[in-house]
Structures are given as structure tokens and as C-alpha cells.
């Protein structure tokens, strides 16, 4: 399996100095919008909306939705009144901020080398900016946005980088790739620790080549990354999604990923089966919905209720034909899955740490515990997101 590389952008591929850049950005935006609201009002709403994005853990709302719910009421103006002015800002004013950044000369050769080796490359930048702003920043770094398989922006992401669910959403939108994965970034709190909590291997760009004192697999200057990757055994970069943090991140991200993957499907595309033995998208989401309601929630409730519970596992292989999934409306089924998953997440809030080791008896796997059964649920999510991604790619 090819290596999947996730790159942070600011102060990893582009010299940004966010402490200086962000005030200049906020000032430019406030000045551009001054005819609509005083700069202090605009800035307060901008900061409040940004804060709410960083805190959001709602898989049903993009960060754009979260931001706009606070920003527009904060300035007392509707989105429709400002949309043209905002587009003008990101088309004409934001590009002038590029002189406050500088490209890293090693970034372009590194990305070209990675792509030429067949690695999958995504830009895992904190999705607090609109797509246009993020694409401008990539161009400032000398990089073509079209070269990347995925770029996280606030239009298509639901979590910021402090949450392990963000990294699960990145991988989900990439179709949950098998094989080695490496997150590369300069910020321990946003790039390294949350990715590590999901179970990813990481490389800390900190300007110092040294043995790794933290959770990262490697560290050094950006220029050190290529020789490090050429020397390391890529099998050691395989992720592990077995911890409670990883499991919760995956099951939280799945509704968000499914929403993004299916957002552009037509009613006809929902029913397309790629091959004789393949499921259509509406069959996949029906299966996810019914499994969530009739298996996962039942199993969780039994294990939360008592120690050493017996965990049934009904045969779901006949459901697609018996329940005629192919004729079910895909959007309705998807909404049903999301509603059920939100109920599941509610059950899992603030669990006592001891619950994760609670014993149980599984109908198929025998003696087990809460952690392992929850791992089965996360693995089930990843398998069907892989399936959904491949199905949509074939359309």
C-alpha cells in the first residue's frame, strides 16, 4: 500500500508566522467590511465565530455553518447582504497579504518527490479558513492546489485540528486508506498530539534534528523529511486505531464523512451498483443505519448495564435483500443513520475510564471487553466508508 502523507501548511510548508499574520488578516477584513459594521464589532464577531469553530464537535454542521451562526448575528447583517463583498475580499484583498509570508524553498521539491513516488498527499491544515484563502496560501508556498488529493477547509470539514476526529475525517474523506500514514507538522498541540491520539505516526518539523523525546516518530527540519522517509521502514508507520480516543474519533467523524462523500449524489446515483456483487450507496447507508440501531446500540446498552454481558450478533447479510435496501431513498436512510449515531455518541459521553475494560461475552468472538467491541464498531465504520468511497469513485 502506498504511503499517505498529511501535511500541515502554515509554518510547515509556508513560512506564515501566524502570530503576525492573523492580526493583519483580521485587520484587513474588518477594514474591508467597515461600511457594514464598526471594526471593533466586526472583529469581535470574527473572533467569536473562530472560537466556536475550534470548540465544535458536531458532525452534522460544517465549520462554515458553525462560524456563520455566530458571525452574521454578531454584526447584525445577513449573509446574503455580505456575500458579494466577502467574495471580493478573498479575490482581491486577501492575496495582498502574501507578502507577510514567504515560501519554504524545500517545500516544492519535497511535494514533487512525494507525488512522483506515488504517495497519496493531502493538505491537513486547520480548516478555519475558506477554500479561497487556503488555496491562496498554498500558491504563496509555490504549490498548486490541484495537485493535492484533499485540502481541508471550513466548507468541507466539521472539526478543527485539536480534535482526533479531525484526523479521522481527513482519512475518511480519503477513503480510509490502508497502509502507512504520516502526519507532518510543526505544532505539537495541533499537528502531533491529536494525530497521535487517533493512532497516527507523526513527524515534528521543529528545525532540530534529534532523537524523538515526544510521541512523534521523527523530527527535524522540513529538508530532513525526505532522507528520513527514504531510510525508515514504512511498515513502522502503520497506524493503530485501538485506543478509546481513536475509536471515539472515528465513530464521531463517520457521519461527517458520509455527509461530505454523498453531498453531490443524484437520486439515480444513490442506486447505482458498481458490480454484480457490489452495494449501491443507498444499500450501504441502510446497512449502517440498521446496524447502528439494532446491533451497536443494543451491544453498548448491554455492556453499560452490567459486567460480563452476553453480546448478540445477528446475521445482517440477508438484510439488504429482505428489506429491499435498493429501493429505499438514500438521503432518508443517511439521515436515519446520522440520527442513530448521534444517539450512540450521547451514550458514550463522559464514560468512566473503567468501563473500557469491562468484560463481556461476544456471540462470535467469545470473551471480550468494552474496548474491543467498540473497536469492532470503529472497524465497521472504516470498512463501509472505504466501500462508500470506492463506490462513489466509480460513478
Structure description:
With 395 residues, the protein is of the alpha/beta class. The chain folds into 3 domains: 148 residues, Rossmann fold (3-Layer(aba) Sandwich); 84 residues; 151 residues, Four Helix Bundle (Hemerythrin (Met), subunit A) (Up-down Bundle), CATH 1.20.120.450. It is 52% helix and 10% strand. The protein is built from 15 helices and 11 strands. The chain has a 6-stranded parallel beta sheet, with helices on both faces. It has a 3-stranded mixed beta sheet with strand order 9-10-11. A two-stranded antiparallel ribbon has the order 2-3. Helix 8 links the parallel strand 6 and strand 7. The longest helix is centred in the C-terminal third of the chain and has 25 residues. The relative contact order is 0.11. The model has no long low-confidence stretch (mean pLDDT 95).
Quick structural summary:
With 395 residues, the chain is α/β, with parallel strands linked by helices. It is built from 15 helices and eleven strands. It folds into three domains: 4-14 and 101-237, Rossmann fold (3-Layer(aba) Sandwich), CATH 3.40.50; 17-100; 244-394, dinb family like domain (Four Helix Bundle (Hemerythrin (Met), subunit A), Up-down Bundle).
CATH topology value of the largest domain: Four Helix Bundle (Hemerythrin (Met), subunit A)
Main sheet: which strands, in order across? 5-4-1-6-7-8
Mean pLDDT: 95
CATH architectural designation of the largest domain: Up-down Bundle
Distance between the first and last residues' Cα: 23 Å
Rounded to an integer, what's the Rg over CA atoms? 22 Å
Assembly classification: single chain
In N-to-C order, the SSE pattern is EEHHHHEHEHEHEHEEHHHHEHHEEH
Share of residues in strands = 5-15%
Amino acid at each position: 500500500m502506498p504511503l499517505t502523507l498529511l501535511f500541515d501548511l502554515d509554518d510547515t510548508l509556508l513560512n506564515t508566522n501566524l502570530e503576525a499574520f492573523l492580526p493583519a488578516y483580521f485587520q484587513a477584513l474588518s477594514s474591508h467590511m467597515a461600511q457594514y459594521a464598526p471594526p471593533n464589532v466586526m472583529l469581535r464577531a470574527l473572533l467569536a465565530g473562530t472560537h466556536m469553530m475550534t470548540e465544535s464537535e458536531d458532525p452534522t454542521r460544517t465549520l462554515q455553518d458553525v462560524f456563520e451562526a455566530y458571525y452574521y448575528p454578531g454584526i447584525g447583517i445577513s449573509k446574503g447582504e455580505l456575500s458579494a463583498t466577502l467574495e471580493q475580499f478573498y479575490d482581491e484583498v486577501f492575496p495582498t497579504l502574501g507578502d507577510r509570508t514567504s515560501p519554504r524553498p524545500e517545500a516544492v521539491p519535497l511535494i514533487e518527490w512525494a507525488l512522483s513516488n506515488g504517495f497519496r498527499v493531502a493538505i491537513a491544515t486547520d480548516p478555519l479558513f475558506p477554500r479561497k484563502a487556503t488555496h491562496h496560501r498554498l500558491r504563496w508556498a509555490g504549490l498548486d492546489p490541484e495537485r493535492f488529493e484533499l485540502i481541508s477547509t471550513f466548507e468541507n470539514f466539521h472539526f478543527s485540528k485539536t480534535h482526533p476526529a479531525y484526523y479521522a475525517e481527513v482519512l475518511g474523506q480519503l477513503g480510509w486508506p490502508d497502509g502507512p500514514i504520516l502526519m507532518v507538522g510543526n505544532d505539537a498541540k495541533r499537528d502531533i498530539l491529536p494525530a497521535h491520539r487517533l493512532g497516527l505516526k507523526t513527524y515534528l518539523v521543529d528545525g532540530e534534528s534529534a532523537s524523538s523525546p515526544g510521541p512523534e516518530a521523527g523530527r527535524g527540519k522540513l529538508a530532513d523529511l525526505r532522507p528520513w522517509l527514504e531510510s525508515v521502514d514504512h511498515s513502522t508507520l502503520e497506524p493503530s486505531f485501538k485506543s478509546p480516543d481513536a475509536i471515539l474519533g472515528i465513530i464521531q467523524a463517520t457521519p461527517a464523512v458520509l455527509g461530505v462523500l454523498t453531498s453531490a449524489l443524484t437520486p439515480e446515483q444513490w442506486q447505482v451498483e458498481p458490480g454484480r456483487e457490489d452495494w449501491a450507496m443507498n444499500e450501504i447507508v441502510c446497512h449502517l443505519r440498521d446496524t447502528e440501531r439494532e446491533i451497536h446500540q443494543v451491544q453498548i446498552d448491554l455492556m453499560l448495564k452490567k459486567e460480563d454481558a452476553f453480546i448478540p450478533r445477528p446475521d445482517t447479510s440477508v438484510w439488504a435483500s429482505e428489506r429491499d435496501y435498493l429501493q429505499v431513498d438514500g438521503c432518508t436512510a443517511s439521515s436515519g443513520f446520522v440520527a442513530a449515531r448521534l444517539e450512540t455518541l450521547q451514550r458514550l459521553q463522559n464514560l468512566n475510564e473503567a468501563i473500557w475494560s469491562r468484560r463481556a461475552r461476544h456471540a462470535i468472538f467469545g470473551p471480550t471487553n468494552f474496548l474491543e467491541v467498540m473497536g469492532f464498531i470503529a472497524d465497521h465504520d472504516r470498512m463501509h466508508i472505504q466501500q462508500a468511497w470506492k463506490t462513489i469513485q466509480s460513478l
